[in-house]
């Protein structure tokens, strides 16, 4: 196995120069750098990552804490994170916090003990202990998908990457209202999550834009998972004035709502219209195909890596929140005629991408 000394002899430079080239710790003349890289390739030299981390205080690794196993939505985000990290030469350590605050803190501590250079975390509905730990330990971190309210002065800050929520949800509601629906139910997510509160706000904005009064009994929590959504949908259907249209606030809850409708022998859209926040791989396999808001999940994952690397390069820069646009995917479950194949998925972009400085 070749060593750094072998590379130095082959390139005609010192071992220190080889180290500077490989670790980026000092500028090296272009021709010298190329000679070192040529020697590395010719000898098949593989740098010792552990030794390099001791020199640079960097492990070139990123910790990712998202509920990737329990929530299929995060699987696509994970793919975006992984691809961007690999492209930048970083390895990825993954932990699943299961959306449980106690377990969340434990896995983040374990990732930190592995000396990751920074973390990407999708906070739970009760992230107080997580946030306190990240701030106390001064861990470079990007909050993913779920954002926090700005903190007070001196409380520290985090970069945040998420999708637009309120505007796209309002689009779903106004579209259903344009089809004549006046009783539009919402199966909302887990209380405490920013995605839940923002989508509820968008639902109400959509009602207001359509000239409809908000009715609190038409908003029920599905707890962001299928079983909870099944119960929530059953509760909506049992109302004296049951909704004629239903909006589900994430992909897992869409499955639960469909189960509840099937158990009652209700057809979509014949008996009730359905639209969902979160497009997913099999949404166009249902009959009818599901009208949905498609989130840029892979791009969110990739962007979170880039934002984290920018933070590592400039630790003192102002924190910012990056919001990415969603797309309205018009299919037939809302009660419209089935779009032509050329029209499917080509529908309007929701809100435009924005970046703004914030302190969560």
Describe this structure in words.
The longest helix is centred in the last third of the chain and has 17 residues, at 297-313. Strand 6, helix 9 and strand 7 form a beta-alpha-beta unit. The chain is elongated and about 85 Å long. The chain has helices spanning 4-11, 15-23, 30-43, 49-56, 72-87, 101-113, 128-136, 166-178, 194-209, 226-237, 251-263, 297-313, and strands spanning 61-65, 91-95, 118-121, 141-144, 159-163, 184-188, 219-221, 245-248, 273-277, 291-294, 320-324, 327-329, 354-357. With 360 residues, it is of the alpha/beta class. Helices cover 41% and strands 16% of the residues. The strands form two sheets. Strands 2-1-3-4-5-11-13 form a seven-stranded mixed sheet, sandwiched between helices. Strands 7-6-8-9-10-12 form a six-stranded mixed sheet, with helices on both faces.
Q: What sort of overall outline do the alpha carbons produce when their principal axes are compared? A: elongated
Strand content: 15-25%
Which series of helices and strands comes N to C?
HHHHEHEHEHEEHEHEHEHEEHEEE
CA-atom Rg in angstroms: 25 Å
Structural class: alpha/beta
What is the tally of beta strands? 13
Tally the helices: what do you get?
12
Average pLDDT, rounded to a whole number, is 87
How would a textbook summarize the main sheet? 7 strands, mixed
Spatial strand arrangement across the major sheet: 2-1-3-4-5-11-13
The residue ranges in which pLDDT falls below 50 over 5 or more consecutive positions are 151-155, 344-353
Distance between the termini: 49 Å
- Portion in helices: 40-55%
């Amino acid at each position: 196995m070749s060593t750094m000394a072998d590379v130095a002899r082959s390139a005609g430079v010192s071992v220190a120069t080889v180290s500077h080239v490989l670790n980026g710790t000092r500028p090296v003349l272009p021709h010298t750098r190329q000679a070192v890289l040529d020697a590395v390739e010719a000898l098949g030299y593989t740098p010792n990552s552990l030794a390099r981390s001791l020199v640079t205080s960097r492990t070139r690794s990123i910790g990712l804490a998202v509920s990737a196993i329990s929530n299929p939505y995060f699987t696509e985000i994970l793919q975006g994170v992984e691809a961007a990290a690999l492209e930048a030469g970083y390895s990825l350590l993954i932990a699943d916090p299961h959306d449980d605050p106690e377990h969340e803190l434990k896995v983040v501590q374990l990732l930190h003990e592995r000396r990751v250079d920074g973390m990407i975390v999708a906070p739970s509905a009760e992230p107080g202990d997580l946030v306190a730990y990240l701030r106390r330990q001064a861990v470079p971190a990007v909050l993913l998908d779920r954002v926090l309210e700005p903190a007070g002065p001196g409380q520290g800050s985090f970069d945040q990457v998420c999708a637009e929520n309120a505007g796209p949800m309002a689009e779903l509601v106004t579209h259903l209202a344009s089809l004549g629906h006046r009783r539009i139910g919402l199966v909302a997510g887990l209380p405490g999550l920013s995605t839940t509160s923002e989508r509820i706000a968008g639902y109400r904005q959509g009602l207001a834009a359509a000239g409809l009064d908000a009715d609190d009994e038409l908003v029920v929590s599905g707890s962001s998972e299928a079983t909870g959504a099944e119960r929530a949908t059953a509760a909506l259907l049992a109302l004296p004035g049951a909704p004629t249209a239903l909006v589900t606030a994430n992909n897992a809850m869409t499955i639960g709502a469909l189960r509840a409708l099937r158990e009652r022998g209700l057809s979509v859209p014949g008996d009730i219209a359905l639209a969902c926040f979160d497009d997913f791989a099999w949404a166009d396999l249902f009959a009818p195909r599901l009208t949905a808001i498609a989130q840029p999940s892979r791009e969110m994952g990739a962007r979170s890596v880039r934002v984290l690397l920018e933070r590592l390069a400039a630790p003192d820069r102002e924190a910012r929140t990056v919001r990415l646009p969603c797309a309205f995917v018009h299919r037939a479950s809302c009660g419209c005629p089935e779009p032509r194949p050329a029209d499917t998925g080509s529908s309007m972009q929701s809100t435009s991408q924005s970046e703004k400085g914030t302190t969560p």
